[in-house]
Amino acid sequence: MTATRETRGKAKQDAELSHEHEHEAKKQKVETRGRGSKGGKKQEKHDDDVEMDVDEKSGNGTAVEDIVDQFEEFVDELKEHCSFEELKSIAEENGITSDLPLRMLLIGLADQLFYGPLQTCPLCESHGTHAGVICDGYHYKCSGFISEWTMCNYISSDAQRTDGSLKLPKKLKNDFLKQYEKTHDASKRPTRVLAAGKKPFLGMKIALSGRLRQNQSAYKADIVKHGGKVADAIKDDVSCLIVGHLDAEGGGGSAKMADAIEKGLPIVKEEWITDCIKKKELLPLETYDLSKNMPGESDIPWDKRPPGEEAAESLMAELKLVGKRGVYKDTNLEEEGGKIFESKGIIYNCAFSMCDMVAGINDYAIMQLIQLPSDVLYLYYKKGRVGDRFHNSERLDEMDSHRTAVKEFVKLFEILTGNAFEPWEREKKFHKKPMKFFPIDMAPGIDARAGGLGVHQLGVVAAHTQVDPRVAQDLKVLMSQEVYRFAMLEMGVDAPDLPTGNLTEFHLHKCAEVLQKFAAYLNKPETDELNHERMCLDFSNKWWSLVHTTRPFVISDIETLAETAAPTLESLKAISVASQLIGDLTGATLDDPLADRYAKLGCQITPLDHDGEDFKMILNYMSKTIEPVKFNDTEFKVSLQEACMIDSSGTSSLKDLEKMSNKTLIWCGTRTSNLLACMKLGMPPASIQAPVSGYMVRNTHNETDLFMVYFTFRK
């Protein structure tokens, strides 16, 4: 590499995981049962009813705070003297999963070297597998996996340690560890006290700033008493900054606040301290975060913002990646004539997603080779959470040659996925690996959220078209950006960093397979509640890895599947078809874009005469089937303004249907579905049959699955 161009965010090595990001992940654990809990119930975050007998001293009589200091020093030394590969070899030697992020593996191994080995996971043993337990300072968690998509959901506030010490690999040549093994006396090792009970701030350094309701010296005494330390300045090891409301509302003015904003540290309300002490547990910092109230551009991840704020930003956000040949917008290279590099039939542009709610991971990744008109190649890479600019990894590197660029691209693909690049790109051969990304197979077109008509174009386009004005009014809506933005917003799959509205048939088929298997499982009776919870976690992680969302959740029954995942898949199918048809309408290359796309639609749309029998029939049908809706003191009714007859080349003609002895009424559509794909290809069958409550129909038998179902009537 001869040069490096900086983009937003700091470039980081892929193997590294920042302390802040890891700390954030801890707060998002899907908390499940620990030892002795009953199926179907979540384990308590901490045993609040159990007071710690050990207050000032622990184990061998040393003060708890001193032991924590010694442990932190040991972690720093271990990080300095041991490589990631050496840590992985130690983990494998002791039955601990090595496919963990660096920070998690480092803390987990340091704990067992310092405090003693932990027993294996009881949950995995009950399912016939074996995996080691690790401690992150807050909980004891299993390091194993339910599958390649999901970490084991065992979590507990207590765990048994074994006698002896961790085994070091015989081939390991590390003087620091060899010396530690000789000098460390296992019989005198201290007892670990987690950050809970009377010591919720153990291992934390907390900074104070500004005008607080309580005297700062009083807060300092409380923090120290409950296991924490007070930092006088903002450094890398500081956990958070406590400020008063007046300082936060004023946008920050102190040097500490400016430093905290620059480093991306949480800036939280002072109530966090008192609430942690009162509840005897470490509460999530995000709940008390004041960053969102500060002026300026927000850098809070979308999943940490209020839903209304996230929705508003989603509707206005620029789509940064539009498809397989789209240059990521933040690189600014498209303005210089940059295009995605292609060679020997391969397009060097990949997007990835990974969701593991147990591990607290919900990330996306982008990597692409961008070729400028001067034939210079740049490798762009980004990884992180939607909206989280402070913690996302991002870099843009100028490459020496085409050969070097391709080599680096292939290497990065293997690091992110654990798979070879060419078998995936040419033959779609891919095997998901634990804690690795899964590729999002993008189509070559442009996502309709970016290629559709903009708001400023709608009136002009509809007014200057040869298409029938009544038809044009419908077409301009179906070919606008807004209808797709709103639909994907409602489904929660609206991340601007991924072209979720422009997916290939292969990817959508993969989604359908997961959905169908999930539905088949949920339709069967399950007596083992523990197994049901694990299966639902695993299926949900698969689904949200394939269909990225900023707010993943566990789908645990067929009704939730039918109300959320099923209509999302059907809508994404339709939107992907619409994206291919619409293309890019934002430019001024066409005199009549509506007429051009109408011709490509392959569908004849004929407005009905308001005095005709067909129009009157529809009016009569609506009057008898759709009830007025009352909200508070206001009553809402549906009125019919226009009705059109559609003759699509993608389905049988009306004359052919009239000849059939069996009559099938196809009921198609949800709030988030798209009519354009149905007009282009006809009305497809739903991916799953999952009946739920139907639409409002009076005096008729009606059942539907949230997208469509076939009603069959005999004459």
Shape: elongated
Could you describe the largest sheet, including whether it forms a barrel?
A: 7 strands, antiparallel
Based on secondary structure, the structural category is alpha+beta
Task: Tell me the helix content.
Answer: 25-40%
The tally of domains stands at 4
Strand content: 5-15%
What is the overall number of helices?
Answer: 24
Number of strands: 26
Average pLDDT score: 81
- What Rg is obtained from the alpha carbons, in whole angstroms? 29 Å
Descriptors for this entry?
single chain, alpha+beta, Rossmann fold, 4 domains, 4-stranded parallel β-sheet, 24 helices, disordered C terminus
Write up this protein.
With 715 residues, the chain is α+β, with helices and mostly antiparallel strands. It contains 24 helices and 26 strands. A hairpin with a 4-residue loop joins strand 16 and strand 17. Helix 2 packs across helix 4, helix 17 runs antiparallel to helix 20 and helix 20 (558-582) crosses helix 24.
Short overview:
This protein has 715 residues and is α+β, with helices and mostly antiparallel strands.
Spell out the blueprint of helices and strands:
Blueprint: E1 3-5, H1 19-26, E2 57-58, E3 62-63, H2 64-81, H3 84-93, H4 102-115, H5 122-126, E4 133-135, E5 140-142, E6 145-147, E7 150-151, E8 155-156, H6 175-183, E9 205-209, H7 216-225, E10 229-231, E11 240-243, H8 245-249, H9 255-263, E12 267-269, H10 271-279, H11 307-316, E13 339-340, E14 342-343, E15 346-347, E16 349-356, E17 361-371, E18 377-384, E19 393-398, H12 402-417, H13 421-427, E20 438-440, H14 448-451, H15 455-463, H16 469-478, H17 481-491, H18 505-522, H19 529-546, H20 558-582, H21 593-601, E21 603-607, H22 613-625, E22 629-631, E23 634-636, E24 644-648, H23 654-658, E25 662-668, H24 675-681, E26 708-714
Parallel strand pairs: 9-10, 9-11, 11-12
Antiparallel strand pairs: 1-19, 2-3, 4-5, 5-8, 6-7, 13-17, 14-15, 16-17, 16-20, 17-18, 18-19, 21-24, 22-23, 25-26
Helix pairs in contact: 2-4, 3-4, 15-16, 17-20, 18-19, 18-20, 20-24
